[in-house]
Design brief:
The complex is a heterodimer of chains A (about 290) and B (about 350). With about 290 residues, chain A is mostly helical. Chain A has one domain. Chain A is built from 11 helices and 4 strands; from the N terminus they run H-H-H-H-E-E-E-H-H-H-H-E-H-H-H. In chain A, a hairpin with a 4-residue loop joins strand 2 and strand 3. In chain A, helix 3 crosses helix 8, helix 5 packs antiparallel against helix 8 and helix 6 packs across helix 8. The radius of gyration of chain A is 19 Å and the shape is globular. Chain B has about 350 residues and is mostly helical. Chain B has one domain: ABC transporter involved in vitamin B12 uptake, BtuC (Orthogonal Bundle). In chain B, about 65% of the residues lie in helices and about 5% in strands. Chain B contains 13 helices and 3 strands. In chain B, strands 2-1-3 form a 3-stranded antiparallel sheet, with no helix packed on it. In chain B, a hairpin with a 2-residue loop joins strand 1 and strand 2. The radius of gyration of chain B is 22 Å and the shape is globular. The two termini of chain B are about 35 Å apart. The C terminus of chain B is likely disordered. Classes of the chains: A mainly alpha (about 290), B mainly alpha (about 350).
């Protein structure tokens, strides 16, 4: 029973990682860049929900929608100001700029909202699920997190596979130049990808903070890195991969926290990642690319 | 002067780099002798030297080998812990200069061994996958060192990954490594000249390596891995060579850095430190050693200089970073700058790609 409860918590944490990883992986697939500032967008989303819902007292769903809007704007602005001018520059310089943006968001948040921890009230107001006559209790936050992330993933896959903008995204990801020649607005598609990723980050922020309710300007950093790991774990660029990677990472992290050591849980996560990458160098669901001369 | 042979371009730029380091040393010594040295600047000297060595060594991997490493701090950590562990235990009985020297050697060796351990699996991967594995190995080392307890008493050494009490030590035993608290009570050794000597040694090694057959093999791998393999270059060997030598020098830097403080904790060498060093390398121009040195100095001193703005410090730093990246790297800015510079030059070198 104990095991099942750890497992449920792990899946719930993993779902949050999965939501963040979806943003990472989409941006990577389309713009071929690692958006290190993605984790900090979560934090901004968290603060927006904090001020509208926890402080302002408006309906949680409305608060999350406002946060999604704010993060979408933020994501598009970041892309426009910091990343678009660097299109065509080396990928490392884009990476460093992303790190600069990440510092900017963290320290901006520090100035605006001060560094004292804010305690977040859960956006989910439901009773926990009690199973096996009280032996197993799963918090409502966990269940909502898991359901929301599954729904979002399914919607995303549908969007990419069956809609016109989704096809355009696939085309840009496949070959940017060719896509442009086919009349696809590449910059528009990249902006759209950032918008979707950032909106997901806002949802992830609200759900993460409902389960782990301490909000500080660096809240997003570690989940951001973990989600990046999850995206690579599942095969970066692949949407189901990011989801699978996120869930597995959450489970491994929680189980090793419970059965091995709290301090070493991160080490176990990263060790599993290394082993997986050694066996399958492109991640679990990543596509193998063959290089032709 | 007319008959003198023109110096090779690489020799000239190497001489400039060495000259810059020596001039920097002289400048600091003059400031110190005339008594203008403030405690703030004085305290920064050793970290600056350590970061310069870190930047030069990371340049080997990122600039010359062309692989992205996000875990360079791990090698610094490995070196620092091994070196300081020796320094506070066996080294305490030796004369200080000898203990420091051996600590450096042990630190470098430990970092090198860790480099081989990480490098062999890592170098089978490429690109972002390599980056993530270097990040992961750095986090693993940080977590393990942060959870490790070592104590010694009359029955010998005790070792645990749990807590201090599970060591089962005698009451008079001495704790050597205290988990998240790290190693404490280090007898400080901070001599600026040692830092400069370490920088010079690193420079001599790197410039010689890059001008050798091995160095050309390494840059060939960066420029085109397939072509390099086709010409018979042993990829694993040269990749590992660049990776491990970078690790060894990061280990030296770690020892230098740790000797400057009275305590050493694993959390200090986290992902952010790796990122900071990477920023130095990229900002200085990848593959450009002098640029990396200057960037390392500026980026270590700048946040301290901005302390007057206290809370705005890191905010300003982040804006400076973004603006510098845009100005240096954005294609539109680069071509604008070229056009701007052409007005001042009669024979402007228009052709050729701008160095990355």
């Amino acid at each position: 029973m104990q095991f099942l409860s750890y497992l449920a918590r792990g899946i719930s944490l993993g779902s949050v990682y999965a939501l963040i990883a979806l943003g990472y992986t989409m941006v990577y697939g389309i713009a071929k860049m690692l958006n290190f500032a993605h984790g900090d967008v979560i934090m901004v989303g968290g603060y927006v929900v904090f001020f509208t819902f926890c402080k302002g007292g408006i309906h949680p769903v409305l608060a999350i929608i406002i946060a999604m809007g704010a993060c979408t704007l933020l994501g598009i602005t970041i892309e426009r100001v910091a990343y678009r001018p660097l299109r065509g520059a080396s990928s490392l310089s884009v990476l460093i700029t992303a790190i600069g943006v990440s510092y900017f968001l963290q320290n901006g948040a520090m100035l605006l909202w001060k560094s004292d921890p804010k305690s977040f009230t859960s956006v989910v107001k439901l009773k926990p699920l009690v199973l096996f006559g009280g032996q197993l209790q799963i918090s409502a936050e966990s269940i909502v997190t898991i359901l929301v992330s599954v729904v979002i993933m399914i919607v995303l896959i549908w969007f990419v596979q069956y809609t016109k903008p989704g096809h355009a995204m696939q085309a840009v990801s496949e070959d940017r130049g060719a896509a442009q020649l086919m009349g696809i607005n590449v910059n528009g598609i990249i902006s759209m990808t950032f918008a979707i990723g950032s909106a997901l980050a806002a949802v992830a922020g609200a759900l993460l903070l409902s389960s782990y309710p301490t909000l500080i300007p660096t809240t997003g950093a570690m989940p951001g890195i973990k989600a990046f790991v999850a995206a690579v774990f599942g095969g970066i660029g692949s949407i189901p991969g990011a989801f699978l990677g996120g869930i597995l990472l959450g489970i491994i992290e929680n189980l090793s926290k419970a059965y091995i050591s709290t301090q070493l849980s991160d080490a176990v996560v990263f060790l599993v990642l290394i082993v997986v990458l050694l066996v399958k160098p492109t991640g679990l669901l990543g596509r193998k690319t063959t290089v032709k001369v | 002067m007319a008959g003198r042979k023109k110096m090779k371009k690489s020799t000239r730029s190497n001489l400039m780099t060495f000259g810059f380091v020596i001039a920097f040393w002289a400048l600091i010594e003059i400031v110190r002798m005339t008594g203008h040295m403030t405690a703030k600047i004085g305290g920064l000297l050793i970290p600056v030297c350590a970061y310069v060595v870190m930047a030069i060594s990371l340049n080997l991997v990122v600039g010359f080998l062309g692989e992205l490493s996000l875990g360079h701090a791990a090698f610094m950590s490995a070196g620092a812990f091994a070196g300081i562990y020796f320094y506070t235990t066996a080294g305490a009985a030796l004369p200080q200069w000898l203990a420091v020297l051996i600590a450096f050697l042990i630190g470098g060796a430990a970092a090198g061994i860790f480099g081989v351990l990480v490098g062999i699996p890592v170098l089978r991967l490429s690109g972002d996958y390599l980056a993530i594995v270097t990040l992961a190995s750095g986090e693993i080392l940080k977590n393990v060192l942060g959870a490790m307890y070592i104590g010694s008493d009359s029955r010998g050494l005790h070792f645990s990954l749990k807590d201090q009490f599970s060591l089962g030590m005698e009451p008079d035993g001495k704790m050597l490594l205290k988990g998240a608290m790290g190693i404490m009570g280090i007898k400080k050794f901070s001599v600026f000249t040692v830092g400069i000597v370490l920088i010079l040694i690193t420079l001599i090694f790197v410039t010689n390596l890059m001008n050798s057959r091995a160095g050309r093999a390494i840059t060939a791998i960066r420029d085109d891995e397939i072509a390099a393999r086709a010409t018979g270059i042993n990829l694993t060997k040269y990749k590992l060579m660049a990776f491990v030598s970078a690790a060894v020098f990061a280990g030296f830097a770690g020892v230098l850095y740790a000797l400057n403080y009275s305590s050493l904790v694993a959390d200090k060498f986290d992902y952010n430190l790796s990122i900071n060093v990477l920023v130095m390398v990229v900002l200085g121009g990848m593959g450009n050693v002098l640029g990396g040195i200057i960037a390392a100095i500026i980026l270590t001193v700048l946040p301290e200089m901005l302390r007057g703005f206290s809370q705005y410090r890191m905010f300003i730093y982040s804006i400076v970073l973004i603006v510098m990246m845009l100005f240096n790297q954005a294609p539109a800015f680069v071509s604008w700058r070229k056009r701007f510079m052409m007005r001042f030059r009669k024979k402007a070198p228009v052709s050729g790609k701008e160095g990355i």
